[in-house]
Amino acid sequence: MKNKILTVIICFTIAGCSSNAQKQENKTVTDMDPQFDLFKANFIEELWKVYPTWASSQGYHKYDSILVVPNDASRAKELTFSKTNLDLLKTFDLTGLSDNNKTDYYMIENQLKSIDWAINEQKSYEWNPSEYNVSSAFAEILNGNYDSLDVRLRNFNLKMANIPAYYQAAKNNVKNPTLEHTQLAIDQNLGGISVFEKDFHEALNKVHFGEHEKQMMEANARESVKAINDYAEWLKKLDNKTPRNFRLGKELYAKKFEFDIQSGYTVDQIYEKAIAHKKELHQKMFELADKLWEKHIGGSIDVTLGKKGKVSKPTDSLELIKQVIDKISEKHVKPEEFQTAIEQQLPVLVDFIKKKDLIYIDPSKPLVVRKEPDYMAGVAGASISAPGPYDKNGNTYYNVGSLSGWDKEKAESYLREYNHYILQILNIHEAIPGHYTQLVYSNQSPSLIKSLFGNSAMIEGWAVYTERMMLENGYDDSPEMWLMYYKWNLRSTCNTILDYSVHTKNMSKEEAMNLLVREAFQQKTEAEGKWKRVSVTQVQLCCYFTGYTEIYDFREELKKQLGDKFNLKQFHEKFLSYGSAPVKYIKELMLKNPS
Ligand code: ZN
Ligand code: ZN
Asked: Where are the domains of the chain?
């Protein structure tokens, strides 16, 4: 029953309409927002029933004790959820919705259609055994501080009950998996076992449950460990004579790009842009390296030539760039100073942003730098863990991979990669004003939908955009920094070229290594890691360059349009105020109301 349609009559004045009244004129006659808000609230309630583990990860803990068994029944439930809500969406007239609800509408629609596509077309539940892994969901329950340890441990225990059935269903689902995802599933599942073998046990020692209850729980944990080990063993022995090719293929790839990236550009356009950008970066890098050669290398002796021979300047431009990059990479911190260096960087970035008036940074949301927790370990580097939209007061962590226990050579290579210059760019990207700042804004966004269905291209694009923005505003204007920045930017550019080429153009590993090592100046180990990543993910590597390109192009367009009235701080704050929506929708809204 549509009995609550509100009729809004607006702006009678014809001449001299106030700016406020002009804004209202954009509103449509039939305001369907109250109904749509109700629909959204219901939709999310239902969503969490279908995806309880996702709910927990977002800070909604009502269903913490439930682990869904991934079988035909649960997939049927997902499909029904998708269809029912797509039908409900159709009852809303888009013209009757506010701008914010319009984008929520599009994002919900995209989410629902992608559920259907994933189950009926992509079918990765058959060929990707690494989709089945319970450890991080359980680790989150142990590590969360939203409730007492007693409550969390009891939920942990209840959730464990379905683990054997979960892995049995996984075995039933898996058919001719790719070899790459099979190996990944083995590694990751075995890697996560410590959550049940060690972490849970330690947590249990901190609470005062009765002996009987504790023993029951320990027994459940042993069953869980057994189920995970069995799954890994089963995968190792799997008779897989016709494994699926890990390359997604042109058709599925284009569709996945549409769902996951939601770009204003097609995937082919983005690929062409990435190719052109790479060429442009090589040109700029050559100019800088050519100038820096004398200063850093010119006078030095070539040891292979004895005392007389000075190092000669390479004629090949990529070789010249590489040598200059190698030389200036020598400026880096000591292994034991890595985390401290990051900690000390953050206030410097905040000060610069304040001084230049680039964006408001909420001082009440602290960023805690910590050593990467064990359950995340394996990928050294840095990442941000932010509280979900339901626990806005939770800590935001900057996880830093530790170098302790690394041999000297490995640590040196890593530190040269994250040298004096790149470490600063990394901090801009991960923390301020990159991911951390964006997440703070995103959680303040009034739309739960946008917080939950965060668009990866917008999120990564923002972080990549801020790197360039900070340098453009004079953060470090040295040619060394710019050269290093271009190298870093080349990485996200080549991520896109690599992903697209591997999954749709049959790029070989050899060609990939040439792209990454020779054209993008990466260490061989990094390039090997990237090859591994591209063979187990699809499209994800495109989000950095796509989002960055869209945001940067949009800013330049708006600058042109507004001329003197363009204000960078306002642009940033307004852009982020829409939450993690696809850039194309933010752009549409901002262009409608540009001041
Ligand atoms: Zn060194
Ligand atoms: Zn990022």
From this structure: 2-50+71-126, 132-244, 261-592
